[in-house]
Design brief:
4 helices, 8-stranded antiparallel sheet, alpha+beta, single chain, 183 residues
Length: 183
């Protein structure tokens, strides 16, 4: 029995230490902050920034998630994207304004509009954050304020959805690194 526990424990420690996405959460009443450190392969900062900002690339990795995205407008430094989530209890529409800061190696985003189809989901009063390229990782930060206390179910859904989305970004970046390194 001890041996099985030890083997499972070692496997869990190794799997956790190899995780490329490391989260930190801070949930307080009606607000929360998320911080993720995402290890990235050897791609140039410009390539990573393009993956994080360019709508066509965002659409490619978003296609594997539960979010549908639509471009509202885009230029070289800003874009506005509608993110639509379809849950069994409600649909959500979140319009995000995003701005690229090339020299700071950062994409900053903020919510401009929010719609929901069911009152069961709380209203999001404000949301924003950033992707910052920092050495060999992306530092993802998000701060959100809702109109009521965030219960355990919302906490679980938020963590699941954000981490799932970031994993798709990571897979996309890994695929791009493989393509670049095989050329």
């Amino acid at each position: 029995m001890r041996r099985q526990f030890f083997i499972v424990f070692c496997f869990a420690v190794l799997a956790f230490s190899r995780e490329k996405i490391r989260p930190e959460y801070d949930f307080k009443d009606s607000s929360f902050s998320l911080t993720y450190r995402i290890d990235i392969p050897k791609l140039s900062d410009d390539e990573i920034l393009s993956i994080l900002f360019n709508f066509e690339k965002v659409r490619e990795y978003s296609a594997k998630t539960n979010v549908k995205i639509t471009l509202i407008e885009e230029n070289t430094k800003t874009n506005r994207i509608l993110y639509e989530y379809n849950y069994s209890v409600a649909k959500l529409g979140v319009e995000m304004f995003r701005e690229k800061f090339q020299e700071q190696k950062m994409v900053v985003f903020r919510m401009e509009k929010y719609n929901r189809t069911a009152k069961i989901i709380p209203d999001v009063l404000s949301a924003g954050g950033s992707y910052k390229i920092n050495n060999d990782c992306i530092l993802y930060k998000q701060q959100t304020v809702m109109n009521k206390k965030i219960n355990a179910i919302y906490t679980m859904l938020i963590k699941r959805d954000v981490q799932g989305y970031l994993k798709e970004i990571m897979k996309y970046i890994d695929d791009q690194a493989l393509k670049t390194n095989s050329i």
